[in-house]
TrEMBL record:
Residues 1-181 form the FAD-binding PCMH-type domain. InterPro entries: FAD-bd_PCMH (IPR016166), FAD-bd_PCMH-like_sf (IPR036318), FAD-bd_PCMH_sub2 (IPR016169), FAD-linked_Oxase-like_C (IPR016164), Oxid_FAD_bind_N (IPR006094). Keywords: FAD, Flavoprotein. GO terms for molecular function: catalytic activity; FAD binding. It comes from the Bacteria. This is 2-hydroxy-acid oxidase.
């Protein structure tokens, strides 16, 4: 299988134009760390962004950074850290969960809309993505957005590309808004709560004026004893005040411990990167629902098949592990969610991912829109064919 690795956008235009003329189907990759997400590849060659590297713009005073799509995420984060800044959405690293190697790239973060626990406060990756450059399936270079936040008229290609998983275009450059690194970060940890009480505590904290930037619950046995984590960030006097106020607010749930430094950072890495489910042979589901429904949805799955789970986003994100046999619980998971959420099969054997919908099935009207967008941007169906939905 051929591997194409353009070193410039112009070279990518040429390569994709030639592939279009041959109708050669392409697997679009960055660092390859998330290659196992989605339906199995139906491609004939690989188009890699790893030759497109380098930070092209960094304006700390304007809170904006731009980089070529193949730039390692670690390089972008290191440059931001040197300026005491960060990506607001805390992108997940899938390597431990998927057992993959390589380096995550900033373009893949945009393409997958990859976010983490801070999404409840800072939004998703797409909310910070303000500009993209990409090559469409006709071999045309396209620029959308810019280097400032602004209203958009017409089709917002920036948001369209975020979460398209490389099915609409080959990203060559991305631009993100960034935020200052908080002066201090502290986490309140409540011990021993059951799931219903944990969600109640997280909802109370998130509904308070005390600006929670992380709210997760790990039931007993997932990563040791049951613990509920609530993160607060900001200037140190403000953090002290909010810690005290939250402790009083949550007194009915027990007296929380305050953890900081590497202990707290490790706890949030565990949540962000789904480390309790790394290194097993289970299928892994990512369920998004209303926070108050999280425990009931997980319990409904467990009533039909053995499962383990934990909660992020105040209970609105359920990471669930179950046996990878049969349909890996697809029918059970989606029946438990009903119309009140969506489910993505993040990890499963290739045969399972070929047989069941990996991403949330679309209604007929939404599928028509999705097919129309695919036809408009990639008329020959070159890019990641079938990765998100069969036939697209």
């Amino acid at each position: 299988m051929s591997i194409y690795q353009p070193r410039s956008e112009a070279e990518a235009v040429t390569l994709i134009g030639e592939a279009a003329a041959r109708r050669e189907r392409l697997r679009l990759v960055g660092g390859g760390t998330r290659a196992g997400i989605g339906r199995p590849a139906q491609d004939e060659a690989t188009l890699s962004a790893t030759g497109l590297t380098g930070i092209t713009l960094y304006e700390p005073a304007e809170l904006v950074i731009a980089a070529r799509a193949g730039t390692p995420l670690a390089e972008v984060e290191a440059r931001l850290a040197a300026g005491r800044q960060m990506l607001p959405f805390e992108p997940m690293d899938h390597r431990a969960l998927l057992g993959s190697a390589g380096e995550p790239t900033i373009g893949a973060v945009a393409a997958g809309n990859i976010s983490g626990p801070r999404r409840i406060a800072g939004g998703a990756a797409r909310d910070s993505l303000i500009g993209v450059r990409f090559v469409n399936g006709r071999g045309e270079a396209v620029k959308s957005g810019g280097r400032v936040m602004k209203n958009v008229t017409g089709l917002d290609l920036v948001k369209l590309m975020a979460g398209s998983w490389g099915t609409l275009g080959f990203l060559t450059e991305v631009t993100f808004k960034v935020l200052p690194v908080p002066e201090r970060t502290a986490t309140l940890a409540l011990a021993g709560l059951d799931e219903a009480r944990a969600v109640e505590a997280m909802s109370l904290a998130l509904g308070s004026p005390f600006e929670i930037t992380g709210a997760a619950h790990l039931p007993e046995g997932i990563d040791g004893p049951a613990r509920t984590l609530l993160r607060i960030e900001g200037f140190s006097p403000s953090v002290d005040y909010r810690l005290g106020q939250l402790t009083r607010l949550l007194r009915g749930f027990g007296r929380p411990a305050t953890i900081e430094g590497e202990t707290a950072a490790a706890a949030w890495r565990t949540v962000r990167n789904v480390l309790p489910f790394a290194g097993t042979d289970e299928a892994i589901w990512r369920l998004s629902t209303a926070p108050g429904r999280g425990p009931a949805v997980a319990a409904a799955v467990a009533a039909a098949r053995p499962a383990r789970w934990f909660f992020d986003w105040g209970g609105g994100l359920v990471w669930l592990a179950t046996a990878a046999t049969g349909d890996a619980g697809a029918a059970t998971v989606r029946a438990a969610l009903g119309s009140g959420g969506h489910a993505t099969l993040v990890r499963a054997p290739e045969a399972v991912r070929a047989a069941v919908p990996v991403f949330e099935p679309l209604s007929e009207p939404l599928m028509r829109i999705t097919a129309g967008l695919k036809a408009a941007h990639d008329p020959a169906g070159l890019f990641n064919p079938g990765r998100m939905y069969a036939g697209l």
